[in-house]
Amino acid sequence: MNRDIDFDENCDPNNPRKIKYDDILAASRRIVGSIIRTPCVKANMSEKLGMEIYLKQECLQITGNFKERGIRNAIMLLSEEQKKYGVISASRGNHGCAMSYHCTQLGIPCIVVIPTNGALNKIYKCEKYGAKVIVHGANVLEARVHAMMIAKEKKMLYINGFDHPHVIEGQGTCGIEIIEQVPAVDAILVPTGGGSLVAGIAVVAKHLKPDTEIYGITTDKTCAMVEALRKNERVKIDIESTIADGLAVNLVGVNTFYTLKGVLDKMIVVKEDWVARAIMHLAEDERYVVEGAGAVSIAAIMAGLFPNLKGKKVVCVLSGGNISTTVLSRALERGMSAEGRLVKFKVTVADRPGGMSDLCALLSGIGVTMRDCVPERAWVKGDVFSVDLRVICETRGWDHTKELMEQVKKHFKDYYFQDMSERPDKSAGTRRGPCLAPNPVCMQK
């Protein structure tokens, strides 16, 4: 890789910049009126999860994510000459959407380079908001190199979506709002990919209310920040498919990594199955449609990772809501399956008029809904007058599923229930990152 092409003076490993509270405060005054002051309301799930949870709804920004704060601050600080040439960035979608919208609002030329695995709905949004979109590279790192080549050719400014100092300062304005909205907050749980949001919020919280605990939350497939903090150096990781594409950063930021030292209490890693369940519960219990990255904080609480926060005031940042309908439907079904509400089984019934209706009558009698049923005759052994039915049913939960299993076993001789040997909600849901608190509190049960 050509260092001249790849070098970004605003994100220089040899000259990292520590973000200061005063700069974040100035950013909050600069962007006021241009960014939505999002609500931070008590969650309906609070009692069930055993703590007073408040949801900071960054998913309600115009482009559906918190990135608007950072990019608005960054482009408002551009020189008049740079505004004429425009800006460019590499993004998996959210940063690109925010940059597209605000550059269009201010009449600034904008190019977004998105890797080939970027979400289609986010590519569409970038184009809709007015940016020129280029799809290039297998990941954000490759897209970034391509974007920086274009930046030098066209004299555009490359703005790193999670590491430019002005971007981090803008993200930190979310922290100012949180402290104003929940003054007695005990802990803030922040989705963490490249680290701009958690770095900005941590700087603010430790300045205004030093006893506030700050936790960065990521998934087991997007744990670049965990590895960096564990090894005390920025480490490149491979990321394939993930439900939390907003956190899919291969290499964390220079400035975010440097800023987080001393202000972040702990990194938490949650399994992606819990994220699917969190997306489902946020939709059902809170009426919010949230993307995977935005749901990781609630997922970590549901997974039982915070026994130390029981009974305390906790703010969970819902960082974004740009989830595609395809991923949303998959997440809802995965969540239902994990909680015993979506059941798959096979049963053998008589292959005669009324044979299948017996099963339907049984399901109807106990209030179970049949979602799908596929008959298979060719693979039934020993009896040409029987048919295997592969059935997917919807129940009210584990107790209802247990009742279904008992009734099927009672009325049919041959049956098989898939993955019903143990409840998935009893399995371990997470692994933990390095503790960074000056006075660490053990979080093990």
From TrEMBL:
Coiled coil start-end: none
Keyword Nuclease: no
Known cofactor(s): pyridoxal 5'-phosphate
Keyword terms of this UniProt record: Lyase, Pyridoxal phosphate
UniProt keyword Lyase, yes or no: yes
InterPro entries assigned: Ser/Thr_Dehydratase (IPR050147), TrpB-like_PALP (IPR001926), TrpB-like_PALP_sf (IPR036052)
Protein name: L-serine deaminase
SUPFAM superfamilies: Tryptophan synthase beta subunit-like PLP-dependent enzymes
Ranges of residues in domain Tryptophan synthase beta chain-like PALP: 34-320
